[in-house]
Amino acid sequence: xxxxxxxxxxxxxxxxxxxxxxxxxxxxxxxxxxxxxxxxxxxxxxxxxxxxxxxxxxxxxxxxxxxxxxxxxxxxxxxxxxxxxxxxxxxxxxxxxxxxxxxxxxxxxxxxxxxxxxxxxxxxxxxxxxxxxxxxxxxxxxxxxxxxxxxxxxxxxxxxxxxxxxxxxxxxxxxxxxxxxxxxxxxxxxxxxxxxxxxxxxxxxxxxxxxxxx
Length: 214
Hints:
The protein is an alpha+beta fold. It has helices at residues 2-44, 50-60, 66-77, 82-95, 111-120; strands at 98-103, 123-131, 136-142, 147-155, 158-165, 168-178, 181-190, 204-212.
């Protein structure tokens, strides 16, 4: 009797598991189909034809699928194709509401670099806007010691954005994109009393920056 009871219980467990197994197979097939689509898009974004790459990217950006869009954007920014990278940055500025910019202080900064870092560290770009007809950029910025509005424009595979505050006239120049990592340099002209020995102690300063999208 004991063995019969165990067999009956095992049968019930198997029967109870059958719908779950069928459901899992259905999900697996759907996942395989989706993976195939993602691989196909990734392959097309690496096509030998620059026109094909750009056309596929623009078509994918019309999708409501956030995973597909994110994958395509990362592929575009890692493509090494200036036109495709520029299209990716254009889409990034349109889709994002803000970007966190990590200003990097050198290990042995000059007085001007150190003073500049303290003002522009924790830089955040917000209210991002792009005119797709002209590639002009605009929005607002906030940092450790400055805030205001900015304006700029896309370049081939990058951008140049103007930032300013009393005593400082700066450009945030993005020159390298690599998937989810963007990098460049903040170049500042320092004027007035801010350039004096008690403050920046110099008339120019440049600091590298990076933006991590993930």
